[in-house]
Design brief:
With 713 residues, the protein is an alpha/beta fold. It has three domains: 280 residues, Nucleotidyltransferase, domain 5; 197 residues, no CATH class; 151 residues, no CATH class. Helices cover 38% and strands 12% of the residues. It has 25 helices and 17 strands. The protein has a seven-stranded mixed sheet. Strands 3-2-1-4-5 form a five-stranded mixed sheet. The N terminus and C terminus are likely disordered.
Length: 713
């Protein structure tokens, strides 16, 4: 028996519009899983538990204006929950993902970046989970990606990947379609029949998985999303339409057929009393409880009249290949489940969807007086989880769901004729038994769990991740992931860890796995790439000071490597003669000291450099001794200066040693050295005398390298 310590873990935070839920998954390492002959030809087996999930409200998108609070005020309990269930020694190897959906998609780009950056920084600071790349592990995912993950999760739990022969729907089709509706968006994902797949090949997504024995699986799936078609966003659009219909100047009380009779609510759906309505400064809604009118008013929200640029289309002018309900059987989750089962199945689970039964129950509930509904809630007539706010919202949601399913997507209206001779309860039971026998072969079935596991797109994400950890059976096998429907590895191919093709080098030679937390998936980088990634892709709070410090080091290194001649030219260009005062009382700057030190130490090589440049110009020791002291040009007024301190041949002095020529005694007086300078001149004069140069001697043969000071040092 394998110990839990030998298992792999993964953590996914589903950051939705209404809240964030953490999911924990566990599976066997491939080296262990492939020892079991019964599972060698199946995808990695993931397990989770109800106690491993936790949800907090509201969603991360509410922190758009205060991103620094998203960690302590939102993520903290979720991370503590994850650390409670993941063994401590497994945490460093446990990947963690926070994947945000429609709520975050509605935020401005700058607010999205601020929230995600704070999320990643907080996770890294508070936990030791495996999070190598913020852009990969913490991101806003497109609706199409969310839909594809959901499609993987549904088919994984139903067993269509591992046992296709047991799910044959005809025409060599064995997978199920997937429908998801959240608060802000809705998704559809399905594998079209062969004819439609060939006709719309460019619209499909290529998906690759890998079984425990390393064998590849390929699927071509159509996925699309409708932002604004989630239950909450649809209601917001619905209220805006109501306001436009009645006109805000004409009435304060807006009749709402999608609210139970007599209920009073704010425009956001919050229930208020009649007394509060009387003093309200804003318009409020009054429920009329008219189900048929509610259906009629929610229908325009489908935007069926929007232009369709690529036939065929479903809603909002969005292209979708033709649906063949003989082979495409859909599983609906999230709002599709909650809206059909929380109230209208009265806590009876696993009911097959029946339009006739469902519509009758919605009508019966929503046309009641609000006082009667509150009485039923008090006595738990619709289960312990149904409160007043749920009861107020469910009538609109039910009408929107019915329109979306049957008028929008085109799901056949199962149950309109089949249950006409049965009571609502018996008709549902008959369809339930039929659905069990057929194995979810009705055109649509709302589900919450399959095999005691919640159907969540987060499961699909981790199935991909675990599948990618399996080494390929053959060298050169294509990687696990998804992308455009083209042969080979498309340029937009997404790896389960979130990277792209260029992040995983040498894959074609079969080295390593697609997504290994212990492997370097980014491959070797050049020094330039490493510097670029460190400076511009890092989330470190001190990135800018580090960048400035790096530039400073680069400048100093370049200065010392550019050669003595260039250093001299740079020095002269940065610190021209006119900019220096003869007074030594001013404290030199760091850069001027640096350049001055260079000039002092560089003078010894003047002879050899001049010969190389063709100048062949030599100076006597006096020239060198006076190098750092101002000198006048040949026509300067040198009155009052010691002739011994002047250049012997002013016409031969180098230009680089010439200071600005004063034109008056006033200027000369301003340039006269102070007391400190005079002491410096005395030292220089004494230094020259200690050289004991004979005028007859060829002083040009001597250099400062042979000076007593140099020899002494």
């Amino acid at each position: 028996m394998v110990k839990k310590a030998d298992k792999r873990y993964g953590v996914v935070l589903d950051a939705g519009s209404s809240g964030t839920r953490v999911y924990i998954y566990r599976w066997l390492p491939n080296s262990v899983a492939r020892l079991d002959e019964t599972t060698r030809h199946a995808l990695p087996e993931l397990e989770t538990k109800d106690t491993w999930t936790k949800k907090v409200h509201p969603g991360v998108s509410t922190f758009g204006t205060s991103p620094e609070a998203v960690g302590p005020k939102h993520l903290k309990p979720l991370l503590q929950h994850a650390l409670k269930h993941v063994p401590k020694h497994a945490v460093p190897e446990t990947p963690i993902f926070l994947l945000a959906t429609a709520g975050m998609r509605l935020l401005p780009d700058e607010q999205q970046r601020d929230v995600l950056r704070n999320v990643c920084s907080y996770i890294r600071a508070e936990t030791n989970f495996y999070l190598p790349d913020c852009d990969v592990h913490v991101q806003v995912i497109p609706g199409e990606t969310e839909g594809l993950y959901g499609w993987i999760a549904a088919n994984y739990l139903l067993g269509s990947f591992n046992s296709p022969e047991e799910h044959d729907h005809g025409n060599d089709h064995h997978t199920y379609g997937f429908l998801d509706m959240g608060g802000a968006s809705a998704q559809i994902a399905f594998a079209p029949n062969a004819t439609e797949a060939e006709k719309h090949a460019n619209d499909l997504t290529l998906l690759r998985l890998r079984t425990v024995d390393g064998a590849p699986q390929e699927y071509r799936v159509f996925v699309t999303t409708w932002l604004g078609f989630g239950a909450n966003e649809a209601r917001r659009r619905y209220v805006e339409d109501l306001k436009a219909t009645y006109g805000l100047d004409a009435v304060v009380e807006i009749p709402d057929p999608c609210l139970p009779k007599g209920v009073i609510a704010k425009q956001d759906g919050t229930i208020i009393s009649s007394a509060e309505a009387g003093i309200a400064s804003d318009h409020y809604l009054l429920g009329t409880g008219n189900f048929e009118e509610c259906l009629r008013r929610t229908f325009p929200l489908l935007e069926k009249d929007a232009p369709c640029l690529d036939e065929p289309c479903l809603v909002q002018g969005v292209h979708v290949p033709a649906l063949d309900f003989d082979v495409n059987h859909f599983i609906g989750i999230s709002e599709y489940w909650h809206t059909t089962h929380e109230i209208f199945e009265m806590a009876h689970k696993d009911k097959a969807y029946d339009l006739n039964t469902y519509q009758n129950r919605v009508r019966e509930f929503c046309e009641q007086e609000w006082s009667a509904i509150k009485h039923g809630i008090k006595h738990k007539s619709w289960g312990k989880d149904v409160d007043e706010q749920t009861a107020v919202e469910v009538c609109f949601k039910a009408s929107w769901l019915i329109n979306m399913l049957h008028e929008g997507i085109g799901i056949p209206r199962v149950g309109l004729e089949d249950t006409s001779s049965s009571s609502a309860r018996n008709g549902t039971k008959e369809l339930l038994e039929s659905a069990k026998d057929k194995g979810f072969l009705d055109p649509f079935q709302a589900v919450d769990k399959i095999k005691s596991t919640e159907v969540s797109w987060t499961l699909g994400k981790m199935v991909l991740y675990a599948s990618a950890e399996v080494p390929p059976a053959r060298e050169g096998d294509l990687p696990v992931g998804f992308g455009s429907n083209v042969p080979g590895i498309p340029k937009d191919f997404q790896y389960p860890s979130g990277g792209r093709l260029q992040d995983i080098p040498d894959y074609h030679v079969g080295t390593g796995t697609d997504s290994n937390p212990n492997a370097n998936t980014e491959g070797p980088q050049s020094i330039t790439d490493q510097i670029h990634d460190t400076l511009f892709k890092s989330d470190a709070p001190h990135r800018l000071p580090g960048f400035i410090f790096f530039l400073l080091i680069l400048i100093i290194a370049t200065f010392y490597l550019c050669g003595r001649d260039r250093r001299s030219r740079i020095y002269n260009s940065l610190f021209p003669s006119s900019s220096f005062s003869a007074s030594s009382s001013a404290k030199p700057s760091f850069f001027s000291s640096l350049f001055s030190r260079h000039r002092r130490h560089g003078a010894a090589g003047q002879y050899s450099r001049d010969v190389e440049e063709g100048a062949a110009r030599l100076y006597d020791p006096g020239d060198f001794e006076l190098e750092n002291v101002f000198s006048a040009s040949s026509d300067d007024d040198t009155t009052g200066l010691d002739p011994e301190l002047a250049f012997r041949n002013p016409t031969s002095r180098p230009k680089s040693l010439t200071r600005t020529s004063p034109k008056s005694k006033r200027n000369l007086g301003r340039m006269t050295p102070d007391a400190i300078d005079r002491r410096g001149l005395v030292v220089r004069t004494e230094s020259r005398e200690r050289l004991d140069l004979d005028p007859a001697t060829n002083a040009r043969s001597k250099s400062r390298n042979g000076s007593p000071t140099r020899l002494k040092s």
